[in-house]
Design goal:
About 10% of the residues lie in helices and about 25% in strands. The chain has about 290 residues and is mainly beta. The strands form four sheets. The protein has a seven-stranded mixed β-barrel. Strands 2-3-8-5-6 form a five-stranded antiparallel beta sheet, with helices on one face. Strands 7-4-1-9 form a four-stranded antiparallel beta sheet, with no helix packed on it. The longest helix has 10 residues. The protein starts with a strand and ends in a 12-residue tail after the last strand.
């Protein structure tokens, strides 16, 4: 079997696919890739089925070599030194080196045939919150490469927008606990510019700004959480949940970000600015009240 050898793993490299669907009732989160669009595109460019596993690389630094010729591609955050958005042949003994991206946070490396590590509960995704799935990639690891009967696409390069360091404007809809902040706080949420906190990770994007004041006291009974939920803890500083969010939570979810916009949020770097805006047609009214 063809294998990729990890020479350097970078700050954080994990194996990811679309995660463990439909197991939240058992207390098992979905996990999976943070930027689903970039993962899907990477697989498409090398002719893989979208469910095959890729490598999710945070802030570059990954160095790979191979024992046999393979076709690879990178998507998401563009890393210096690696061909981007277009498939390329990595010859046996050659190295693929990912520098630190100038914009964006997460890069996806797909190899034709997929990263064929052993699945856990139906997925090859590494869940850093629960510890499920393959371990975080380390230097010296040998990653098996699978095979695919799908044809190789005749694509030289994918002309898609890339992450930037600019202010990101994110459309939201009111969440089920929107009434836990009053109209003034909701207006503040939609008007102020937040800064991404350095404590952000695969669980969620932590935001810094003027704290939101709650309209209700006490805490909620824990309820189910979803990717894209914007939760307001007692600090008043919102957290936007990403792939490894907890299955349940007791802080009010005041807004939701849809999947495509969550992909863009997954590329936010610490110190980058974010602003929320009501989706077209949205009134900001709660979709459900407690």
């Amino acid at each position: 079997m063809t294998t990729l050898t990890v020479v350097e793993a970078g700050a954080l490299t994990t194996v990811q696919d679309f995660g463990r669907l439909g197991q939240a009732a058992l207390g098992i989160g979905r996990s999976g890739c943070c930027d689903r669009g970039a993962h899907r595109l990477a697989n498409a460019l090398v002719g893989n089925h979208p469910t095959l596993a890729t490598l999710e690389v945070t802030l570059g630094g990954l160095v790979l070599t191979t024992d046999e010729d393979v076709v690879v591609v990178t998507t998401g955050a563009r890393c210096p030194g690696a061909p981007h958005l277009g498939p390329t042949h990595l010859r046996a003994g050659e190295e693929l080196r990912l520098g630190i991206p100038e914009a964006g946070l997460r890069t996806y490396v797909a190899v034709r045939g997929g990263i064929d590590v052993e699945p856990v509960l139906g997925s090859r995704a590494t869940d850093v919150l629960s510890g499920l799935g393959p371990k975080v990639v380390e230097a010296g690891d040998e990653l098996p490469v699978g095979t695919t009967p799908r044809p190789v696409p005749g694509v030289d390069v994918a002309p898609v927008p890339e992450p930037t360091n600019d202010l990101l404007v994110v459309p939201v809809t009111a969440g089920p606990r929107r009434d836990w902040i009053d109209d003034e706080a909701w207006g503040q949420f939609l008007s102020q510019t937040y800064v991404v906190d350095s404590r952000s990770n695969r669980v969620g994007v932590r935001l810094e700004g003027q704290p939101l004041t709650r309209a209700q006291e006490g805490e909620l009974t824990s309820e189910g959480m979803l990717r894209g939920a914007v939760q307001v803890p007692p600090s008043g500083q919102p957290v936007l949940f990403l792939a490894d969010h907890p299955v349940t939570g007791g802080y009010p979810v005041v807004a939701y970000v849809d999947d495509e916009a969550v992909d863009r949020c997954a590329q936010l770097r610490p110190g980058q600015e974010v602003r929320f805006t009501a989706r077209s047609g949205g009134t900001g009214e709660p979709s459900a009240r407690r």
